[in-house]
Amino acid sequence: xxxxxxxxxxxxxxxxxxxxxxxxxxxxxxxxxxxxxxxxxxxxxxxxxxxxxxxxxxxxxxxxxxxxxxxxxxxxxxxxxxxxxxxxxxxxxxxxxxxxxxxxxxxxxxxxxxxxxxxxxxxxxxxxxxxxxxxxxxxxxxxxxxxxxxxxxxxxxxxxxxxxxxxxxxxxxxxxxxxxxxxxxxxxxxxxxxxxxxxxxxxxxxxxxxxxxxxxxxxxxxxxxxxxxxxxxxxxxxxxxxxxxxxxxxxxxxxxxxxxxxxxxxxxxxxxxxxxxxxxxxxxxxxxxxxxxxxxxxxxxxxxxxxxxxxxxxxxxxxxxxxxxxxxxxxxxxxxxxxxxxxxxxxxxxxxxxxxxxxxxxxxxxxxxxxxxxxxxxxxxxxxxxxxxxxxxxxxxxxxxxxxxxxxxxxxxxxxxxxxxxxxxxxxxxxxxxxxxxxxxxxxxxxxxxxxxxxxxxxxxxxxxxxxx
Length: 469
Known about the structure:
By secondary structure, the chain is an alpha+beta fold. The chain folds into two domains: about 5-45 and about 335-460, no CATH class; about 55-210 and about 275-320, no CATH class. The protein has 16 helices and 17 strands. Strand 3 and strand 4 form a beta hairpin. Helix 12 (about 335-365) packs antiparallel against helix 14. The radius of gyration is 33 Å and the shape is elongated.
């Protein structure tokens, strides 16, 4: 019988204490791998939020505050950028595109972002991926709105429905723009970024809500047209919307009755009907915006334009490079990452110390077993190898079980982290860094097994054969 088989059978004879130790190691391994995976994915999610943008320009404030408020919708911008300054800077040489951003309003806790059509053309996330529509299209006029995927899913919104924007960024607002209802004309595909939790409206809508057009009577909004192909939408023919003029009055009334039933039945047959409208002005005459994103024809213009903007005499402005500021942000959070890593390492060490305690505690009970092995020809190094092999087997099985529990935990936590924190966890194979962590745990477990092995190495044959009272 080889040593590995003997070590396994010897451990199985003490299965209660061994299983408890193994489960402790598995939990610590799962905790360590989970913390590291969430940390890496969170960093990756932040880095993927914006891509292809060379500069972010806003009123002079802190670099990180401007990045968090304009891209991640975290915090508030203290000041705004004058529209004239935006128009002047976008005309500078080398500027390929700009995206104006106006923040400050919300809808049921979700940030409302005012922008124009360039947002859907030039904004990139992840690996320079474009925004794509799950349903509908971009807005055409000041009464249309495009929702992020999480907003539509959480609030169960569909194309053609109307929503009301609230003043302020909080979950609760006492000022609603009831006289400016917005019609949902588009729902974006999931991106795993703050875009999913954002309500997008035209700049002119923000201007009308807060400017001279605030009390203007609502304009005609688009009407629903025929269903898009390959979508299981509610049959248009059932409601006869487009045949009203050709029906008798009774039929017309009956059609309205059907429509009312449809509306008051809490949209049991909610659909994603396209809404048609005439293209109109999306910008209006805004006086100021929160920030704007910039892209250049060549990276060579980035530093030059950034310096010019930071020295702009028209008003105090700040231009930041998103990648550089993100690295600064992670540099600030480095201490938090180290604390989390230290916490998980301490848990692993405690579990390995538990294994050492178990092996030492059972060593005295196994003196007779070891003496019998010595009496049948086992040498001291056989005893040493046997106890070391037991520690290696327990650590190895603990790592395998912990890795399995880690994948199960990732699978269960994926939807919660995605919806609540915007962190997209990938159920991928272990990275080289994670494999190195498991290797370090195996090495530590082996070292822990050396202590009882050395102690047993020096046991004499008579230690276990004599009965001690």
